[in-house]
Amino acid sequence: MKRTLVCAILILAVAGFATEAGGLGGPMVIGLLPSFSDLNAELDSYNTEHFGGSSGPELSGPMIFLGGQGSGFIEGFSVGGWGGGFFKEANGDSSKALIGYGMGYGEFGYRVNLFDLVWIKPALVLGGGGVGMHIGRYRSGGGFGDPSDDFDNDDFFSDDESYQVGKGLVSVGALVDATLVFPMNDRKTAFGGLSVKAGYLYPVYESDWYDEHGNSIDKDAVRFSPSGPFASVGVVFGGQGTSKDYDEDWDEEW
Amino acid sequence: MKRAIILGLVIVASCFALDWGVYGGPGMSFSMTNMKPVHDEISRDAASEDPNFPGYDVGSFASYQLGLRTPIIIRFFDFTVGWGDSYSWQTFKGNDWKTSFQHRLEITEFGYIINLGDNLRLRPVVGLGDYDIDMTIAELGGGFGDPQDETDAISRSYDYHNFSMTAGASIAYLWKFDNNVVIGVEGSLRYLIPFENEDTWDSDGFYQDAVISDFYPHTPVAGINFLIGYERIGEEDRLWEGEWDDDWEEK
After folding, report:
1. What is the rounded CA–CA span in Å between residue A218 and residue B250?
2. Which of A81, A158, A200, B131 has its CA 20 to 30 A from that of B44?
3. Hey, which residues 103-132 in chain A have their CB within 8 Å of chain B?
4. Cβ of residue A76 closer than 8 Å to a chain B Cβ
5. Residue B193 pairs with which residues in a beta bridge?
6. Mutate to test the interface with A, among B228, B232, B243, B250 (most CBs of A within 10 A)
7. Which residues, including other chains, have CB under 8 Å from residue B11's CB and lie 6 or more apart?
8. What is the pLDDT of residue B214?
9. Residue A140 DSSP symbol
10. What is the pLDDT of residue B236?
């Protein structure tokens, strides 16, 4: 799919300056709100069973992704992609869970230009992502402690005291993008902007979990997928042109 | 190799001002390969053959496959050649075991474009290629494993390849712009017929290949995908350059 997206963006970018066409891109931050309840229940029982604790790591809040976006457009049609990744962690009384994650989506939408100030774009997305989790023994002293105390706390990464597991998924979704556009030259062919997206990701395929030794863990036994409602904010820079602009400028210069 | 062929064909078409186009776009695919014979073989009670092995106990499965497709299509005049790869995944699960499949269609298709209107195009196609299925039978856990357990997973993997042909049609609704860019949506329906009736499942490890006598994976394959492309078809698409040159000379 990456190959197809790159071809599509190149086609739009190279061929785009005969009609109203252009492209834009930039960094973005995404917040995704999945349900952690089943995963937290498993982490709590895991904390008790394997590390002797009473209160397991509890993940909450949004999964934050740092990433980027890019798209090309011709007339109203827009084709592009976005993605990102980051990590999140939670501490229990005897263990810690560290999740690393990433996702990438192709985006296909229709752009409506409102007063050359705001572009509103409803779009469909198709893509996927993955999650890797490291669970390990963790001891917290509750303070900074005595400097003469040589207590070793590296169990979190030791083979006998930690466990790694991960999964992947394919999702479809829908979103609305609103981009506030600031022209950067008189002809309005270059611009900067502020892009905000909001939408929902629905998993069409989820793998089971696979651990570090290749064992499968039923996805229905530990339910978690990085999907659900999401929102993003990003800065974009880009350019656009039309055949009308081009011809007039050429005539004037001639 | 495919990329080199595509690039070569596009360069040749550009140099000689032929009617040509290139299209592609991601989408979803849907097929209905009958996996019941495979399921029956995997889940059958093998106690009569080996009293120490009670069978894989794989309990449930779906009778369809849902996945992704990423077609790329090259056009010369009204003829097309396309690579219609599609991927889908499927899992049978039991209490202790699971079987996961990746279905992969790598079909090269030849077609002919029939214009049904300004925006509507019908494309009958026939194709040849591989229907590949990767299968893994593995133990299935009901929760995360013990951190002190360092034993590797027990699993078996097999690959299935069946050279196949497809026949069907695609219908596309496209918008074409002044700069010859086209954007639209394409729906497709094919029927896939494998050439081999009892092909083997090749083992990936030190165990025997398998043959499932009743398994013959003929299936309808439906798909829908976005379509983005560029084309130069007929005199109209080439006039733009000529007019521009004439104006320039007059001035």
Report:
1. 74
2. B131
3. 106, 108, 126
4. no
5. B165
6. B228
7. none
8. 86
9. -
10. 66
Q: Residue B146 is nearest to which of A17, A42, A50, comparing CB atoms? A: A50
All residues at 6 or more sequence positions from B229 whose CB lies less than 8 Å from its CB, including other chains: A11, B21, B22, B23, B24, B73, B181, B182, B183
| B100 bridge partner residues | B91, B136
Q: What confidence category does residue B16 fall into, taking pLDDT thresholds of 50, 70 and 90?
A: low
Chain B positions in Cβ-Cβ contact with residue A75 (cut-off 8 Å): 177
What letter represents residue B222's amino acid? A
Q: Is the dihedral of CA B47, B50, B54, B60 positive or negative?
A: negative
Lowest mean pLDDT among A120-134, A167-181, B79-93: B79-93
* Mean pLDDT of the residues in chain B: 84
pLDDT in tens, B135-170: 998 888 888 888 888 888 888 899 999 999 999 999
**CB-CB under 8 Å, B89 with A208:** no
One-letter-per-residue 3-state SS of chain B: CHHHHHHHHHHHHHHCCCCEEEEECCEEEEECCCCHHHHHHHHCCHHHCCCCCCCCCEEECCCCEEEEECCEEEEECCEEEEECCEEEEEEEEECCEEEEEEEEEEEEEEEECEECCCCEEEEEEEEEEEEEEEEEEEEEECCCCCCCCCCCCCEEEEEEEEEEEEEEEEEEEEEECCCCEEEEEEEEEEEEEECCCCCEEEECCCCCCEECCCCCCCEEEEEEEEEEEEEECHHHHHHHHHHHHHHHHHC
Show the CA angle centred on residue A145, arms to residues A139 and A148, nearest 5°.
Answer: 110
On the question of pLDDT at B232 being above 60, the answer is: yes
CATH code of B2-250, in short, is 2.40.160
* Nearest-5° Cα angle at A51, A47 to A55: 35
Q: Which amino acid is at A135?
A: I
Q: Report the alpha-carbon distance of residue B93 to residue B60 in Å, rounded.
A: 6
User: What span, in angstroms and rounded, lies between the C-alpha atoms of B85 and B43?
Assistant: 30
Structure tokens at B166: 């497809």
DSSP A157: G
Q: Could you tell me how many CB contacts below 8 A there are between chain A and chain B?
A: 140
Q: How far is CA A211 from the centre of its chain?
A: 23
- The phi, psi pair for A216, rounded to 5°, reads -95, 140
From the CB of residue B31, how many other CB atoms can be counted at a distance below 10 Å?
A: 22
Distance from CA of A1 to the nearest CA of B (A): 6
The single residue listed with the structure tokens 């069907």 is: B168
Chain A: residue nearest B228 by CA?
Answer: A8
User: What pTM did the predictor assign?
Assistant: 0.79
